[in-house]
Amino acid sequence: MMLWIMRKLSLLAALLGCVAAFVWLSSDKYIRSTLFPPYSLHNTSVEKHGCSLAFRYLKESRENGARPVRELNRRIDFAELEPDAVVLRIAPALKPGDREAIDEEVAKKSLKPDKKDKKKKPPVLAKDKPLLTDGEAAWVRGGGRLVLALEGDYGPIETSTERRADPFERTSALWPGVQRIQPTGARTLKGAILNDALTLFTLNRGVFAAKLPMDKGEVIALASAEPFTNSHLDEADNLALLQALAPASRAIYFDEYVHELQDAPGVTELLLRWGLGAALIVMGAGALLGFWRARTPIGPPEDDHKETRTQAIDFVGSLAPLYNRALEPHQALALHYKNLLQAVTAQTGLRGAELEAKIRVLLNTNDLAAFAGQRPLTRGGFERYLSELNRGYGRLERAHRR
Fold this sequence. Notes:
The structure is a single chain. By secondary structure, the chain is an alpha/beta fold. The chain has two domains: 22-109 and 125-262, Rossmann fold, CATH 3.40.50; 309-401, no CATH class. The protein has helices spanning 2-27, 29-35, 52-60, 76-79, 104-111, 134-141, 238-245, 267-273, 277-295, 309-326, 329-348, 352-363, 379-401, and strands spanning 69-72, 86-90, 145-149, 158-161, 168-170, 187-190, 198-203, 206-214, 217-222, 252-255. The strands form two sheets. The chain has an eight-stranded mixed beta sheet, with helices on both faces. Strands 4-6 form a two-stranded antiparallel ribbon. The radius of gyration is 45 Å and the shape is rod-shaped. The two termini are 45 Å apart.
């Protein structure tokens, strides 16, 4: 029994250790700052351009009932976003040129092997570098806002580095609370697509931030994503800019699909990014093996009943010789007589003279002193008195049954 308890306790301790390790992995800030890509909302680093504070600020600053702040892990084409939502695409790693300029269903069909031509090449990427996919454009025209905070070229929008980061000028009355944005990365935006855009901020007379209206919605492009990082969010008017781009009246989405995160990362994602996928497989296989081993009996089952009939008889048989060696006949008879007194008292509740009278009737004798163990008995006397005690027990039992 004790061994079984120790085994269960060891298993429980191992399980609690695994749970504690997983909780630590999912909450440790250092791990999240080293495993997740720059400009991701899951990156808590200050030096490596994490954007966790921007996401947390927008999420925590909203009152109950306000529009939600969420993570986007799918392409806008298939995400079914609210028509007036805001998508923050901060320093996207996936550019429009990296995606196929054809419908996804057509792409799936084109990737299937052709029986006639086994060396069929994958579909050619679009050469015109569109700013938006068809699904993104449809969503923006319906009233959505797409914010592009860039760290490099993005489709038809090109970025160029300036020699110096001044002068920085505000050229629109759109956001009166935003006067200056830092750092700018000394970059500006260029491209023919900006000819139809409204310039919001300039840097060295070049376009730093622009708004491209599209029917009911708009695309807002900025030449730097650093103002939204953990290390610069509190500088200049960066926080006011974030609030202006993502107002509480609209649902907000941080686009993590462009950071190649196609699902909200959990402990499994952390372990895979650490290269521990094989360890997960081994742990799973070990758990299945342990469960199978515990459920498969080996040999006949053990009998947990502690006192079988045979053991009880053996116990009585061993106890009788012990009494014979330890007690004289008159002492053993006195113990038997004492048990009779207790049995009569328990059944009738008699005490004193009444109890003594009841005992005389059961034993059919007036010589009770012979049962008190005060004088030695011969073998014949012992057997005679013992028989009288047994008959007394019988009379008591029959009386009780009535």
